[in-house]
Each structure stands twice: as C-alpha cells, then as structure tokens.
From TrEMBL:
PTM-bearing positions, type 4-aspartylphosphate: 69
Pfam (any one): Response_reg
Record domain OmpR/PhoB-type: where: 146-243
Name assigned to this protein: Transcriptional regulator
InterPro entries per the UniProt record, alphabetical: CheY-like_superfamily (IPR011006), OmpR/PhoB-type_DNA-bd (IPR001867), Sig_transdc_resp-reg_C-effctor (IPR016032), Sig_transdc_resp-reg_receiver (IPR001789), WalR-like (IPR039420), WH-like_DNA-bd_sf (IPR036388)
One GO molecular-function entry: phosphorelay response regulator activity
Amino acid sequence: MDYDLLKKYTKNLNVLFVEDDVDFRKEFSELLKDIFPKVSTAIDGLDALNKYKEYYNKTNSYYDLVISDIKMPNYDGVELVESLYKIKEDQLVIILSARNEFNYLLPLVNLGIHQFFTKPIDYSTFLEDIFKLCSQIYHNNLNKNEDIIRINESLFWDKKKKKLIKDNKAINLTKNEIRFVETILENNGKICTVDELIDIIWFEEFDLNADITHLKSLIYRLRKKAPDLHIKNIYGMGYMHES
C-alpha cells in the first residue's frame, strides 16, 4: 500500500469515532490519527449523535466517515446509524463488532452499512480497506468539481485553467496541444474526425494549411508528454480519448 497516497486521500477528511470502551477508544483513536488529520471521539451513540449535529452546526458540513462500535449504553450502534441516515442518507459508516454481536448485524446490513470489522481488529486489513474507501471518497469529491476531469488515478484535466495535471504537477503543453486535449476530453468516448481537429487546433493559422501530418506530429509529442492520456486512433475516422 502507498502510504503517501493514503495521506493524500485522507488529508481533508473528518472522522467521528464512537466507542464506549475507554482503553480501546484511546488505542484505536491513536491509530486513526496516524491516518486522518481530524478525528473526533464519542463515548456512546447518544454522545456521537450530539457531536454529529454540533459539527454540522459549526461547519455546515457532515463528517466524511463515522466509525462506530455496536453494543453501547444509551444509544447502540443500530440506533445511531438509523438516526444518522435520517439526517444524511448517504453517510459513510464503518461498524466495529465483537464476535458475539452478530444479532446486531442483520439490521445494519438492511440499513446499508458500508463495512464491518470484527474485533480484535486486523490492522493491516483495516488499512487496506480504508485506503480503498478513502480513494473512493477522494475521487468522488473531485468529480463533484465540474472544473476537474479525472482521467486516471494520477492524471487530471483542469477545464478552467486548461491544464493537464500529473501527480499534482502541470504538464507543459503548447497552445495547440491544449486545444487537442480539451477537444478529445470534452468528446470523451466519441470520435473526433481529423478535419474537425485540424479546424479547432489551427483555426487561427490561415497560412499554415495544416493537414494530417501536422496533427500526427502533435499527437506524437503529446503521447510522449502524457502517455496515460490514452489517445486512440480510429483508422480512417479520427481520434478519441479512451477511458
């Protein structure tokens, strides 16, 4: 697992950890703080629900992830999840359960809980699954930004700034390369004909008399700069971006 990538995925995430056992709450919250920069704790379901509401009132946003025990005083894990889903129906919740608490699991499965972990926690498995979940959260958040197109795990197109970004660094593109990238990404999955691309890319250069040779040369340079862009040649028709 790539720990640097995990840190990238989790750096803006807020987590609420709910556990009534004092020792386990202290131990596991320390592990969570190694993963997430912002971890709040609650001692039972009722305390968690109050902190969940308080957090929204202060920030106008919800916790990205809630991790909760099942069997707790005042308000157990099932009651907590039911209450959270009434507030935010797509709230991500992970449940930690003891081996003798399976009678609680069926109601939680029916509620649509994201994941279960059985105590004692296998930390390596937990980290691997957290990595996958946080990757999903990270990319879902990116996709909510209409100015950003995710091409793959590390390559993005910023529509507003007209920049191709690889591993958080902008790739140096010429004006014509930018026009090409912009066109094939806006037509993702659709074929752009050679004539269309030439008209869009070289529309200002009247004296050049651009043709397919110019286009092939541009694509050759672009493939060297950004091989992950996956520019596909559709023989006799044109080019497209292959997701």
